[in-house]
Specification:
Blueprint (H helix, E strand, L loop, with lengths): L2 H24 L16 E11 L5 E13 L2 E10 L3 E12 L7 E13 L2 E13 L2 E3 L2 E8 L2 E5 L3 E16 L2 E12 L4 E11 L3 E2 L3
Antiparallel strand pairs: 1-2, 1-12, 2-3, 3-4, 4-5, 5-6, 6-8, 6-9, 7-8, 8-10, 9-10, 10-11, 11-12, 12-13
């Protein structure tokens, strides 16, 4: 192998290594952490969501979020956080036209706009997620299992698509304290992770309140 060919191979390997590192950090926070349930009118929630990455060497992130009911079957969420990724923020809207009724699960979708920064890398993305959930009364209390398929289109140092399979559940040990857990499985250009989240509901006129 000539020196020129060796140099070219080193360049190619360096490019792929850089892309791998960018993919690792930028995809570390793509969690859903919510069911397909819609908040009651005039309610909002505040929450925190730690996340443990269980693939590609591991890592830890933590995010905080605020949910609000917009109108009818539409909720909104703002999220920001950091950790393995230096900083990210996300704005999302959840639309659930088919509520949880009798044997029918709640069925809807979630759309999000994402910005992430890690070291010198800046990334923007658009995420679409079909989302399903169903209320269940268990021996451990009320619970809402859910599933989703987040698909994210990224741009920044190239364009590519990331996908995951998401399963989780939200528990209500007390009506004014909600606890959730979620597993995200890497399908393509993503990471596998486990997260938990804690939510606290508020009513617009009276403050911290059960619902």
């Amino acid at each position: 192998m000539t020196k020129n060919k060796l140099f070219k191979w080193i360049q190619i390997i360096s490019i792929f290594a850089s892309a791998f590192m960018l993919s690792r950090y930028s995809h570390a926070f793509l969690t859903i952490n919510e069911t397909a349930e819609i908040l009651p009118e005039n309610y909002y929630r505040l929450g925190v969501a730690p996340q443990l990455i269980v693939s590609e060497g591991g890592g830890f992130n933590v995010g905080v979020y605020a949910d609000t009911h917009i109108i009818d079957d539409l909720d909104g969420r703002i999220t920001m956080g950091g950790g393995e990724t230096d900083f990210w923020t996300q704005a999302s809207v959840k639309w659930v036209p088919f509520p949880d009724v009798e044997k029918q699960p709640a069925m809807g979708g979630r759309a999000a706009i994402i910005y992430a920064r890690d070291e010198d890398h800046n990334l923007t993305g658009v995420q679409l997620t079909p989302l399903f959930s169903k209320k269940a009364d268990t021996r451990y209390g009320n619970m809402i299992p859910y599933a989703g398929l987040p698909i994210t289109w990224f741009s920044g140092n190239g364009s590519y698509v990331s996908s995951q399979f998401t399963v989780g559940a939200e528990w209500f040990p007390q009506e004014d304290k909600h606890i959730g857990a979620e597993f995200n499985l890497n399908l393509d250009n993503s990471l596998s992770s486990v997260s938990v989240y804690f939510s606290f509901p508020f009513e617009g006129s009276t403050g911290y309140k059960k619902y």
